[in-house]
Design a protein that fits this description.
By secondary structure, the chain is α/β, with parallel strands linked by helices. The protein has 50 helices and 33 strands.
Length: 1422
């Protein structure tokens, strides 16, 4: 080319083009890739954005990477082994399957509880024939003959399916319809003689014909065998589960339906086999999909709604399996799967059956692709469907129904390329016509199948909807002479995951070209603040957007973690997964279910139709539980993350990582028989660059351990939480991702790391890391120089400054040198602390000492001031962890210099006071600012954060006793006493640690500890501390305080040990009270146990260890009419008084008397209170109100069923079994996050055999009505309301007063009680006094019983209205429980099963009972 019309000024020489731009241009010009135009458009957009950013002085956008070249995966010896020919399908891991042990067919010997319980409910009218074994000499021993009980069916099927294409049967429904065309088959025939009076229509329940018209079903079976030539026939049990049969109200008949269908098939197969023993016929127990789906919501409005659970499916399928096998089935077929979660439930049930019986029964699985998209109804591709169920080791997998053979062709081909076992198809006879019929003739259908045979795709073939014995005959004739599908060669096992699409992990490359699986971290509460806020707010819809964005940004797997102490993890995990599986853009990738509590991940697994990863299990829980958890996850088909933890803690060094992983591997592979390719080891990515020497080699240790683990543990994967590595540099993403890039490049390509939890969007290719940062990152990751952390910190500061300058519209940052040494010494000390400069610490400490009265003043003054600045900067994200450690070291150096002077000052003081200086105790710890015990709680092995806190406190002159990790409550408290510490600090990283912290707090309270309790760690929070921990221990003297991070620890501890402790802790207490109120006000969405489940988990008091209170001094009823208003005034609680007047102070001035200090309402509150006192004095002086009540004390015992309490007038009546009355109680049913029992007031009363008692009282303040009338007549509304408010205060105070009298005198079980009125209001006494209609017993109708027993109306003049309100209005009633374990609680909402029981016990009509309980019903009344 010679000439061109160009702009010479803009022309660029070829040599001047950037490499990536040159590649883009060549691809576009020479049309080398399909994406060339799109790639160039993306680059064009980038260049335009760069021009715009430069004009506005904004940061340049990230350059598009384009398609990154795939880097090679590190190969190990086991990767190089050549595939070998398969001799049989993959075997289940049981010994019987591996050894081809024949099924005995002696089902009568299967007497396991779960099986006999099902048989016990059988409705069969004739005796069950459970055994189907044949005499060993029935037929010859060589193939193709087969004798049940003698021969291995697994071996026989392998021989049959590899020698020819086997024949399955055709449609049962079509044959029944064809029969009906020729014969009468109406409602009457479906009912038969047995179900003449059935209340629902039965026509169309084809499975029922096995009972009512067995001759029809037998004839169909026989025709498929004799005309069609079928080798195997499926039982007439497609809908024979309790779930599907509910439509006909025939749930009780499922055993009979399955048994009889299998029995009929068994008899016909044996009859036909006897005619030609060289062609044995087999019974396939057909297990249909049910009419409900585990993965699909039945509600358009609520994607989390489901009409069936995994456990319900398993239970239904297990019942069906037992009956099918009892009836004589040879094989179990899970068929017509449109929702893989249902199939997984069925296969789980099959696995349970095989495990408890010890049998080897071949399993077939058949999926249904609903249209030409090639996906199941629940959205999975055929490959994903297979990947989801292959853990069950089916002998044969295939497709049936929905489509004709022609339309199935591409999907059968794809399955044939990936399925490791035998493959089958039984398609429809074409697509249905306009009338719902099928038009393909036998010849048409057979012709459509020919393509399958030509390509060698099938081992078994049959027909589904529209097919008949003639269709099967034509297919058989067409298939003759064709070779069956060859089993694929057995190669290196690979991890094969699935969402809606499948994913072979070993073949994955990420968006950077690395052979690495990106696990997205942003749906992890610990990995995303935004996600955490959405979860706490219950905004699952927006959370799905985060999940979608991760997939778009390159995540291959989505990590889901909802661990937070303030979140119901069990409910949140289930809801998230249930919604996520309905979002195609999310659920197309597999999930990693991530939780510290095993029950949470297991709950999530049960809503995943795909093959997911569970993160994590470890030997930390002990060998037996570890193997138990692994076995359960194996049954569910999960891949697992195994942490490098054991009973002794977390592996930090390379050798420990290898040792624990190899030990775990050997147990999993050799004992649990867990597939090694489904094991992902996480050898713990730990934080580097902290400034602590012991952390510096963590990156090297991980990389080295990775390669060794991969060498010693064939086929496993290695994973880690990559963000942990750079945690010390949080806030500057460029620095963090640069460190990650260097680390991953070496860990993946040189050591074989496979998997990581990452933020894919932020990941950098190594080529994108700036040269100086790359060099610094290499030094840091590989611990090459002592100053590696300092170098990276400097780069971090530079990057932070650059970002700030750009944010503020500035240009390049210029370094400015500040002569801080010219500042006053106090400011120099502060500067040195903030900047971590220790060079001048001793010089400046001495200069400051010369200017101060005491050395201690230097510590308490400028040094503490400096550390407070450090804390503020760190909390605001303006300082980083290594800098904080450096600051602490400056502090330590200065303090160490000052200590000798402090000791000298102490000696001089002793001499001045005339004391012997030789008495000076060298172990005297008074030079320390305080003593702190630090512990990681039981079950938790994480200690890095705790160690950092210990360093910071130690550098601030606190004596720290760090007692390690996995510390039991007993050990923590024992050591606290031994060391006589001032403060106790608990640390934990995993969610279960939060529960353990609550245990410690309770025990500290129980034992009378006085030390403040500090709570810290990654999963802890101020809210959890306020709501869960604080109420168990917090007082002004010994508060419970959440410590956000290490830099805050000094400020918190110094405040607790300083002069202003009371003010400091009071403020925190009030803040925590406010937080608790807000939290409980926002609770919603509760889940409920059945009444039987709740009863099983009741509060079981050991009445032998903690016996009932002694007998009251007097049984029966006592009138109380001698208590004056003056007597009860000290017991008044004024807080409700101000609430009545709608006056509420703002924090910190809530409650009486602090409300008087409130800026907004304080003045009015004080005025109101003065008016109340004045009127009270007037009422007392005029005796215009008076008090009266009645008390009852009775012998009592809990009923035998444990839900009510029987009262007896005397001990004689108790012995004679003559109850005076029955008090009915209600039990909690709302599911709890903890293992706490489900309470009922009846739990607090001992059963028969113990001499227990129950008290009760009713009290009133009389005279208020007259006073109200008086003020009303005077139109004095103010004093009218004031009178009513005071009457309420009087009667509540009377109740408090009277309860005390009962405890100390009338019952006398607390004679030595010496509590002041304030403690009484805080309920610090033994026993409780709940009232009917209140949370512990929300049924007002129990007041009627109380009034009858107390004779409250006759003796005290207290009436009950029709609605059971007490009159006068100023009245209080209560039951009195004396047992020390009794406590207040809220019953909450209850279910219909409990209400029905409750109404029966009360002998009350159910509708009436429901009306009274309406506010607490968890269902709508009819």
């Amino acid at each position: 080319m010679d000439v061109g019309i160009v702009n010479p000024h803009e022309m660029i020489a070829h040599s001047e083009l950037e490499d990536d731009m040159k590649l883009l241009c060549e691809n576009l010009v020479f049309n080398q890739t399909e994406e060339a135009t799109d790639d160039m458009l993306e680059r064009t957009t980038y260049e335009r954005d760069c021009i715009a950013a430069k004009k506005k002085n904004l940061p340049l956008p990230r350059k598009p990477r384009g398609k990154m070249p795939k880097l090679p995966r590190l190969q190990f010896d086991y990767d190089k082994v050549a595939p070998t020919p398969a001799t049989e399908p993959p075997l289940p891991t049981s010994d019987v399957a591996r050894n081809h042990v024949p099924n005995s067919y002696l089902n009568s010997k299967l007497t396991m509880d779960s099986i006999t319980a099902i048989r016990a409910k059988a409705t069969n009218l004739t005796p069950l024939k459970l055994d189907h074994a044949q005499a060993s000499d029935t037929y010859p021993e060589s193939f193709p003959h087969f004798v049940r009980g003698r021969d291995s069916l697994r071996e026989y099927i392998t021989s049959l399916f590899t020698s020819r294409i086997a024949l399955y049967d055709g449609a049962m429904g079509t044959m029944i319809q064809n029969y009906a065309k020729r014969n009468r088959l109406e409602e009457e025939e479906f009912r038969g003689d047995r179900f003449v009076d059935w209340t629902t229509s039965m026509k169309g329940n084809n499975d029922q014909l096995s009972i009512t018209q067995p001759q029809i079903i037998s004839a169909i079976y026989k025709e498929y065998l004799e005309v069609g030539g079928s080798d195997l026939i499926g039982t007439n049990t497609f809908s024979s589960t309790t779930i599907a049969m509910a439509d006909y109200e025939m749930e009780d008949y499922v055993y009979e339906l399955n048994y009889e269908s299998a029995r009929l098939a068994r008899e016909v197969c044996d009859e036909v086999t006897a005619k030609d023993p060289s062609k044995p016929r087999f019974v396939v127990g057909a297990i249909g999909p049910t009419n409900r789906t585990g993965s699909i919501s039945p509600s358009v409005e609520d994607p989390a709604a489901r009409n069936v659970t995994f456990d319900e499916l398993v239970e239904a399928y297990f019942q069906q399996i037992v009956a099918l096998m009892d009836g004589g089935s040879d094989i179990l077929m899970v068929e017509t799967i449109f929702d893989t979660l249902n199939a997984k439930a069925a296969l789980y049930a099959v696995g349970e059956y095989l495990e408890i019986t010890g049998l080897d029964v071949p399993v077939f699985v058949s999926g249904t692709l609903v249209d030409q998209s090639g996906r199941t109804l629940s959205g999975q591709t055929g490959e994903a469907f297979y990947a989801s169920i292959r853990h069950a080791k089916p002998m044969c997998v295939g497709l049936n129904c929905a489509l004709g053979a022609k339309h199935m062709t591409p999907f059968v081909e794809r399955l044939a390329k990936c399925v490791e076992c035998f493959l089958h198809v039984y398609s429809n006879a074409g697509l249905p016509n306009a009338m719902g019929g099928y038009d393909e003739t036998p010849e048409d259908m057979a012709g459509q199948m020919k393509l399958f045979f030509d390509n060698g795709w099938l081992n078994m073939v049959g027909g589904c909807c529209g097919s008949t014995p003639q269709h099967i005959k034509a297919i058989r004739e067409m298939s003759e002479g064709y070779e069956p599908r060859k089993l694929p060669d057995v190669g290196r096992p690979k991890m094969w995951l699935s969402g809606l699409e499948d994913l072979v992990v070993d073949d994955v490359h990420n968006h950077l070209g690395l052979p690495f699986l990106n696990v997205g971290e942003r749906c992890n509460i610990s990995g995303s603040i935004r996600f955490k806020k959405l979860m706490m707010a219950g905004d699952f819809g927006t959370a799905m957007d985060i999940a979608k964005k991760q997939v778009e940004d390159g995540a291959h797997v989505i990590d889901i973690n909802v661990d937070d102490g303030m979140l119901d993890g069990l409910a949140a995990m289930q809801k998230f997964v249930k919604i996520a599986v309905t979002e195609p853009e999310v659920s197309k990738v597999p999930f990693m279910l991530d939780a510290s509590k095993f029950e949470i991940v297991l709950a999530g697994v049960k809503w995943c139709q795909g093959k997911c990863i569970v993160n994590s299990i470890s030997l930390k829980v002990g060998v037996e539980l570890f193997k138990e958890q692994a076995t359960l996850l194996k049954k569910h088909g999960c891949a697992i993350v195994v942490m490098a933890f054991d009973e002794d803690g977390q592996a930090a060094t390379a050798s420990e990582k290898v040792r624990i992983c190899k030990r775990s591997y050997d147990m999993l592979v050799n004992e649990v028989r867990f597939p090694p390719e489904d094991i992902i080891f996480d050898p713990n990515v730990l934080t580097i660059g902290t400034g602590m020497e012991e952390h510096a080699n963590y990156g090297v240790d991980f990389i080295n351990a990775t390669k060794t683990i991969k060498e010693q543990c064939p086929y496993v994967k290695i994973s880690g939480g990559i963000s942990n590595l750079s945690f010390g540099f949080r806030g500057v993403m460029k620095i963090r991702e640069s460190i990650h890039s260097v680390f991953l490049q070496h860990a993946i390509l040189e050591s074989g790391m496979d998997v990581g939890i990452v933020n894919a969007h932020e990941m950098l290719a190594l080529s994108e890391v700036e040269p100086d940062i790359k060099l610094a990152a290499e030094k840091l990751v590989f611990n090459q120089t002592e100053d590696a952390t300092d170098i990276m910190l400097e780069l971090t500061k530079r990057e932070k400054a650059r970002l700030e300058a750009l944010k503020n519209g500035g240009g390049p940052v210029e370094a400015k040198k500040i002569s801080w040494r010219d500042l006053p010494v106090i400011k120099r000390l502060e500067h040195a602390l903030v900047n971590g400069i220790s060079q001048y610490a001793e010089i400046d400490a001495e200069e400051a000492r010369q200017e101060s009265e005491k050395a201690l003043h230097i510590i308490e003054g400028p040094l503490m001031d400096g550390m407070n600045i450090v804390g503020d900067l760190f909390g605001a994200g303006k300082m980083f962890l290594p800098q904080v450690i450096k600051s602490a070291r400056v502090m330590k150096k200065a303090v160490a210099y000052l200590i000798p002077f402090m000791e000298k000052e102490k000696l001089e003081k002793m001499i001045a006071e005339g004391k012997d200086p030789n008495d000076f105790d060298q172990n005297d710890d008074s030079n320390f600012a305080g003593k702190v015990l630090m512990a990681t709680v039981k079950g938790d092995v994480h200690d890095i954060g705790k160690n950092i806190v210990a360093v910071v406190l130690g550098c601030n002159n606190y004596k720290v006793y760090d007692i390690g990790v996995m510390c039991s409550c007993e050990k923590i408290l024992e050591k606290a006493l031994e060391y006589n510490v001032d403060v106790i600090g608990l640390s934990g990283l995993i969610t279960p640690s939060l529960d353990e912290m609550v245990v410690v707090a309770k025990e500290m309270s129980k034992r009378g500890f006085k030390q403040p309790l500090l709570i810290g760690g990654a999963t802890t929070s101020k809210m959890h501390t306020a709501v869960k921990v604080s109420p168990n221990y917090f007082t002004v003297e010994h508060p419970v305080i959440h410590v956000l991070d290490a830099s805050r620890s000094v400020t918190v501890v110094s405040s607790l040990l300083g002069d202003n402790k009371t003010e400091y802790t009071t403020d925190i207490m009030e803040e925590y009270v406010e937080m608790r109120e807000d939290y409980y006000a926002g609770l919603a969405d509760r889940y409920f146990l059945t009444f039987d489940q709740a009863k099983e988990q009741k509060f079981a008091i050991d009445f032998d260890a903690i016996p009932p209170a002694p007998a009251p001094t007097k049984l029966g009823v006592t009138v109380i009419d001698d208590v004056t208003l003056e007597d009860v005034v000290p017991y008044i609680d004024w807080n409700p008084f101000f609430q009545t007047w709608e006056l509420r102070g703002r924090y910190p001035n809530r409650g009486y008397p602090k409300i008087f200090d409130d800026e907004a309402v304080g003045g009015e509150a004080k005025k109101l209170f003065n008016d109340a006192i004045a009127l009270m004095k007037e009422i007392i002086a005029n005796k215009s109100m008076n008090l009266k009540g009645v008390v009852g004390l009775f012998a009592a015992n809990r009923t035998d069923e444990g839900e009510d309490v029987l009262l007896y007038a005397s001990e004689e009546d108790r012995e004679a079994g003559k109850p005076l009355d029955r008090f009915c109680m209600l039990r909690q049913q709302a599911e709890k996050e903890s293992d706490d029992p489900y309470l009922s007031q009846s739990d607090f009363v001992a059963p028969a055999g113990y001499k227990d008692h129950l008290g009760m009282f009713a009290v009133s303040c009389f005279g208020c009505d007259a006073l109200v009338d008086k003020y009303e007549s005077e139109q004095d509304d103010y004093n009218k309301i004031m009178s009513q408010a005071l009457a309420d205060r009087f009667v509540e105070a009377f109740a408090e007063y009277l309860h005390r009298v009962i405890r100390t005198d009338m019952w006398g079980y607390a004679k030595d009680e010496s509590l002041d009125e304030e403690d009484l209001l805080k309920i610090k006494y033994v026993g409780i006094r709940p009232a009917p209609g209140y949370p512990s017993q929300p049924d007002h109708t129990e007041k009627s019983n109380m009034w009858n027993v107390l004779k409250a109306e006759e003796l005290a003049g207290i009436h009950l209205s029709e609605s059971l309100s007490m009159m006068p209005a100023a009245s209080v009633s209560a039951l009195v429980f004396a047992h020390p374990e009794s406590c207040y609680f809220a019953v909450g909402q209850v279910g219909k099963d409990q209400v029905e029981s409750y109404a029966g016990r009360k002998e009350m009509d159910l509708p009436l009972c429901e009306r009274w309980l309406s506010p607490i019903l968890n269902y709508e009344r009819d």
